[in-house]
Amino acid sequence: MSRRGGKSSGPEPYDFRRPTKLSREHIRTLQICFETFARQYATLLTTSLRAVSSISLVSIEQLNYDEYIAGLSSPTVVAMFTIDPLPGTAILEFSLSTAMACIDHMLGGPGGPQPQRPLSDIEMPLLHGLIDRTLGELRYAFEGVVQLRPEMKNIEYNPQFAQAGAASDAVIVSSFEMRVGTEECMATVCLPFGAIFPKLQGERGEGVLTEAQRAAREAAYRNVVAGLEGAPIEVSVRFQPVRMHPADLIGLQPGDVVPLAHSTSTPLAVVTADITFAYAVPGAQGNRMACLVVPSPQPGQHPTHRPAGQLGMKNRAEETSR
């Protein structure tokens, strides 16, 4: 039914599992990236395998991870890889018979029907090398959107064993028709939606800001930084912990000595929120205890302690002199 006079043909269903959807502009950007990847991938296969190969983009969909996994056959090649600097794990998937055909061509074979079995210890490095070069083409295809550094993690044959995300995580799935010699299959690339989506809209969002909006955003950023820098936090100086039996703790009396595992040549840890951000040696400043921040010790290095009378906080010493 067509729309006339600006009236809607009816209410549109809302999927609460997908509160954010790809717009037409986002789909177009992804289409350009994946079409570039398909051309580069086909060229890589043709030159590497010395067999006529073709890759063509079929569709781009937004799914949940469990929907994507449920739609894959088993066994199949599920190559999981990281997409630094973005978080999450992505997937390159294609049929096991196509993988066997690629290896057959790399070893000088004619291709043709392939056995359905896991790859051997000799075949696996060959496939790893081919996938690594394929990820290089994916990096090239997405250069206009984000500078990816994809890196291979591992390969699974059963999609149910591929732990690349939670079942409800949104993903972007692109499907390709893949042909290597006489072998044909459907290949997919699965990218985490939450990692890619901000890159699809972030740069465009900055371009529509007015000068007043940009100035207000910068002022808000400066205020947040200034507020964080002036916020008081609890800081402690700690010895290395020592393990004791409950019986020893219960039997402690005033005057008992508890040996510490902390060497006299090892500085103390300066800690806040259980995060060690500096090291220091103890001493005194006037009638108060103080500590002097020292360089972080390197493995096997024993820092030299200064006499207690020379230790103190530099800023506090300056305030005393004033």
Automatic annotation (TrEMBL):
Major localization class: other
Localization per Swiss-Prot or TrEMBL: Bacterial flagellum basal body; Cell membrane
Record keywords, A-Z: Bacterial flagellum, Cell membrane, Cell projection, Chemotaxis, Cilium, Flagellar rotation, Flagellum, Membrane
Alphabetical list of CDD domains matching this protein: FliM (cd17908)
InterPro entries: CheC-like_sf (IPR028976), Flag_FliM (IPR001689), FliN-like_C (IPR001543), SpoA-like_sf (IPR036429)
Lineage top rank: taxon: Bacteria
Residue segments, region Disordered: 1-20, 296-322
Entry-linked SUPFAM superfamilies: CheC-like, Surface presentation of antigens (SPOA)
Domain Flagellar motor switch protein FliN-like C-terminal: 228-293
The keyword Cell membrane belongs to this UniProt entry's keyword annotation: yes
Bilayer topology term: Peripheral membrane protein
Transmembrane segments: none
Recorded family membership: Belongs to the FliM family.
Protein name: Flagellar motor switch protein FliM
Source organism (scientific name): Dactylosporangium salmoneum
Gene this chain is encoded by: fliM
